[in-house]
Design a protein that fits this description.
The complex is a heterodimer. By secondary structure, chain A is mostly helical. Chain A has 13 helices and two strands; from the N terminus they run αααααααββαααααα. The two termini of chain B are about 35 Å apart. In chain B, α4 packs across α10, α7 packs antiparallel against α10 and α10 packs parallel to α11. Classes of the chains: A mainly alpha, B mainly alpha.
């Protein structure tokens, strides 16, 4: 187990380092870093002073060392627009994105698994076929377009739900959340559904394929032969067994949900860090872009690592095959 | 055999009774076509895609106006709903106009051009890079293999949209930059696909035979190995065209994709998005419908190809 853990940790560090190099090369080596990192309205003296302070007059390799050293201390520069440390601003926006991603995750499992099981139990019925057709659409249509349709139908045509924003928030353990107020919940439904749709389609396909397989197993037949109710067979015997692959996939997809939130947040004007990234790109607020990218890379790598380690703890075959390889 | 006989053999001659021949083995391409055309939905998808491609190619000749020639726009026609008559020319705007009086039908045809060009060019480049990397990894094995596949794994562990956004945030907007970002995002899929089938093929006797003939590595890789790895590649490529179109649209929608002077469907949707809430739905909705129809058409074709090439579904 320790061999596997060290190996996996090493791989994660390589991934973070590779992304750091990519971001560094992008920001520091392409074009003049002075233009990128220093406020364009600065005077000549200020530019010279900041160039020296940031070490931009030193060799590139040394600069990379300074970048890494500062990044390790959580210092990724100050935002031009807000005039505060970039990391601080990103971390302020983190809870909104996390709330959105978690609610979307719950929705995609909570709706996806029942639909997938239904489609798996009756694959040739009208209901089963329409669920599959719907999941193909959810899969192949661009996320922002789905979001727009949701706004068009529920906000513009029906007027039931607000089209954007976060609504009223309350303080929960020092973090501002929307899902505890009625207004906040109303604002949350559409973006969360939008973010959930893609993963939901994935869960539906996965749950359906596994249900079809599991439903033919001997223990399911035996359970039926014992005279158990259909409800009990489905809820206990089938559902338990299809949840293993579903949980694995969902764990791995949580990281990509943070990335996909960029699109949803932009469509619904949700004040999370994805929307901040797009705003920062448009305003050329480079320190914020760097901070966002590094944080997101860390989150994704961290989630992947956690899921892999958990999974190998649950299933010894995974780590054995890794160590041998 | 002279050229004439080849041409003659290709032409059907219904009036001449053919002498009885032993059962002919159809070429793989012919079998593929037969399998494909057996599925009506897939044929529908293909026809739809051909029509869309024709609209895109012929856009300058078939659209009522050139939506980016400012001399042809009339501000009086701005924001007209679908079906309204133009104040300037008396023509009908079947899909309405945007704020500047631009005919949405023409704008969509021009937008399709850019969307398709970006997707197809990036597809071609990504296939070239990915195939070269994948075949090299499988053929040489060892360090080359593990190095290339490490990069592929590393890249695939991050969502495609994040990688594309990083690149475009650093490079700035532009058609060439979007294409570059899409190539970088997509090559890994082809590399992985080609490597997995090439690794199986490499162990077969005909590769050993080619090696014994002392053929060059390049000749063996691209003339012997590669042609046998094509079917899975075709399937991945069809899926990836749809993905590339959707990703480009998303990036342009977010404002980091193509520049405003060359609007793709994604950018048209984005431009119309501001008017969605005020009820001018058509500026945004119709480019979106065009995008969605394109993606669905490609997916219908892709689904059928996947079924044909899936050995588990073949009798």
């Amino acid at each position: 187990m320790i061999v596997y853990l060290v190996r996996r940790l090493g791989q994660s560090l390589i991934a973070v380092a590779a992304m750091a190099i990519l971001v560094f090369v992008g920001v520091y080596a392409i074009g003049n870093p002075v233009d990128i990192l220093i406020n364009p309205e600065a005077t000549q003296a200020e530019i010279a002073a900041t160039t020296h302070r940031l070490g931009l007059d030193r060799p590139l390799l040394e600069q990379f060392g300074i970048f890494v050293w500062n990044a390790l201390h959580g210092d990724l520069g100050r935002s031009f627009v807000y005039g505060r440390p970039a990391m601080e601003i990103i971390l302020e926006r983190l809870p909104a994105t996390m709330e959105l991603a978690l609610v979307a995750l719950i929705l995609s499992v909570g709706i996806g698994v029942p639909l997938g099981v239904l489609a798996g139990l009756k694959p040739n019925s009208v209901g089963g076929r329409s669920i599959m057709a719907g999941s193909i659409l959810g899969f192949s249509l661009p996320n922002f377009w789905q979001g727009m349709l949701l706004i068009l139908v529920f906000a513009v045509l029906l007027g039931w739900l607000p089209a954007g924003g976060r609504g009223e928030t309350v303080d929960l353990l020092g973090v501002r959340v929307s899902f505890l107020t009625l207004d906040g919940l109303k604002h949350l439904i559409l973006p969360a559904l939008n973010l959930a749709l893609f993963k939901m389609s994935l869960v539906i396909r996965l749950a359906r394929a596994n249900t079809r397989e599991v439903a033919l197993q001997d223990y399911v037949k035996f359970a039926r032969a014992k005279g158990l109710s259909t409800r009990r067979v489905v809820l206990v015997h089938i559902l338990k067994n299809i949840m293993i692959p579903v949980v694995t996939i969902i764990g791995l997809e949580l990281g990509s949900m943070v990335a996909f939130a960029i699109v949803t947040e932009t469509v619904f004007a949700w004040p999370g860090m994805g929307k901040l990234l797009i705003d920062s790109i448009n305003l050329l607020d480079r320190p914020l872009i760097v901070a966002y990218l590094m944080l997101t890379v860390l989150i994704i790598v961290g989630i992947n690592l956690a899921v892999d380690v958990l999974y190998s703890a649950l299933d010894p075959r995974v780590r054995l095959s890794e160590v041998k390889a | 055999m002279s050229g004439e006989t080849i041409v003659g053999a290709l032409e059907p001659k219904a009036d001449i009774a053919e002498p009885a021949k032993p059962a002919r083995v159809d070429s793989p391409l012919k079998r593929l076509a037969q399998d494909f055309f057996a599925d009506r939905l897939a044929v529908f998808g293909l026809c739809l895609f051909v029509v869309i491609a024709l609209i895109a190619i012929l856009a300058p000749w078939i659209t009522p106006q050139n939506p980016y020639d400012l001399a042809q726009l009339d501000i009086m026609d701005g924001g007209l709903p679908p079906g309204e008559t133009s104040f300037a020319t008396g023509g009908t705007y079947w899909l309405g106009t945007d704020q500047q009086g631009r005919d949405m039908l023409s704008a969509i045809a021009y937008g399709l051009r850019i969307s398709l060009v970006v997707a197809l060019v990036s597809l071609a480049c990504a296939i070239v890079v990915g195939v070269a990397a994948g075949v090299a990894a499988a053929y040489f094995g060892g360090r080359t293999d593990s190095l290339i596949m490490r990069v592929v794994d590393l890249q695939l562990s991050f969502p495609a949209i994040l990688i594309a956004l990083i690149l475009l945030a650093l490079l700035g907007r532009g058609v060439d930059k979007v294409i570059l970002a899409l190539v970088i995002v997509q090559w890994a899929y082809y590399a992985r696909t080609v490597r997995s089938s090439a690794i199986v093929e490499r162990r077969k006797d005909y590769i050993d035979a080619a090696r014994c003939l002392a053929l060059s590595h390049r000749r063996i890789m691209f003339r012997h190995l590669l042609p046998n790895c094509v079917p899975p590649l075709i399937v991945v490529a069809t899926v990836q065209i749809a993905q590339a179109i959707a990703l480009e649209a998303t990036l342009s929608f977010l404002g980091v994709g193509v520049p405003i002077t060359e609007p793709s469907l994604g950018l048209l949707i984005s431009n119309g998005y501001d008017y969605l809430l005020s009820g001018r739905y058509w500026v945004s909705l119709f480019p979106g419908v065009a995008l969605v129809v394109t993606i669905i058409a490609i997916n219908l074709v892709g689904d059928r190809l996947r079924d044909i090439f899936n050995p588990r579904l073949q009798s």
